[in-house]
Amino acid sequence: MTRVIKQVTLQMKKPTAINFLPTQGAAIVSTPAFHCPEAVLKNPSSENRSACLNGVIRLFRLGADEELRALDPNIFINMDTRQFPDHLISLLMDYGMFRGEVFTTIVAARDLQAAMLTALEDHGAFRFEDPVTGQPDLDFDPGIPFKNYREALPLCAKLLRERAHPGNLDKADILEIKYNIMGGKLKLASAIADKGLLRNPEVAYFHYAKTLLANPTIGLRSAKNGLKCKESTPAEGEGGRWEEGVAFVTSAWKDSNVFIEEAPPDNRYMSQVLYWNILLGIVIRGPELSDDLKEIQPSLQKLSQADDFKTKVYRLSILKTQLRKAQEAVIKRFAGAVAEWGNVSPDSNSDSGYKEVQNEDRDELTLNRFLDDLHLPDKGCAAKTTSAYPKVNTNRVVREPECSAEEVPTTALTSPQKNLSVNSKGGEIGPGEDDKRMKEEEN
Predict the structure, then answer these.
(1) How confident is the model over 195-239, as pLDDT tens digits?
(2) Which superkingdom does the taxonomy of this entry point to (predicted)?
(3) Distance CA 403, CA 389 (A)
(4) What is the pTM (predicted TM-score) of this model?
(5) Cβ atoms 104, 125 nearer than 8 A
(6) What is the Cα–Cα distance from 393 to 184, expressed in whole angstroms?
(7) Left if phi > 0, otherwise alpha if psi is -120 to 50, otherwise beta: which for 406?
(8) Nearest by Cα to 287 from 45, 61, 34
(9) Count of H helices and E strands in the chain?
């Protein structure tokens, strides 16, 4: 891998590199290398910035601490508000002392204890009074044949079966399957689903019940058949996926801004939201940012305040989670990365060398055709030939097969030399002068 990174970075820095080589090179080095991914976060291309953010985050997946999901209630019971630092008290006063999470949690815990004591007295039921004595009637029976939602499902299924309509039979089976799934009886739910499939194989919920079984072969086959049902949401093909991705990222960044603006400063999740806010803000704003990232200093200041609340109020240590490590790496290395790679990454936004491949067999990319050809992966690397870049010129791209056993797909290797020829299927090529030159450099 070291030799691959060395050769890729060498070709990326050459002024004669073709237009989309920096993009493909960034996809290769984004996971195992430092500096380059951080620099591409300032690239004019949002596609390149997103790919490198993914690489930076995944770089710290191993060895990272797990995020804290819930706080120990004893933290609030033993908390002494008189020991809060002055600058944190000032932040709470500006927001509203009794609107902060610490105080609302303590009040909610008090109300919960009162509700639990009341439930022990009346068991959560409405008290009917005797019209003569005026005393509560504790023996009142409302006459309902079930006590909770799950117990009502088989009764509803029985009523549907009595109506003897084909559609009602499917609905009755669905209710019984739901009842058994909630009770953990997956085999019984699958048996009911098998009977329902004999009557109507177009009910996706029957296939869903079979996907819950422990056998992966049956689960995958059932999921495939369920996606082919008429009532399933139709596939939209490949159109709109990039636009939807941009919309999701932008929406997540805006939601994080609203959370930071409206949530209490002592909110336990403030630091996690700020991690995403900083990283997504860099990806979205990209080339607008200065090298010293002064535009995100307000978010960094809020992160420092959130850390103070966590260590001095909640008495917790700062966990080195995957997102925190990624955020710290970007902030620490951004300026140096831009200085090292700034003359390379901006050129990767040029579209002059792109030529979108027109798909003549677009009908073959529909969902049904794909599902008909879906198989469990065999041992080895027998997957179909694919390309990692959606906009390429097939006359100048060498496609390598994608290994189903690998987590990251192989990237298309590109070359500007004319003597590198590609067959119509994007497979084998003949040896060219560029191959010989690279071998000499390696030796």
Answers:
(1) 999 999 999 999 999 999 989 899 999 999 998 888 776 655 555
(2) Eukaryota
(3) 16
(4) 0.52
(5) no
(6) 53
(7) beta
(8) 45
(9) 18, 4
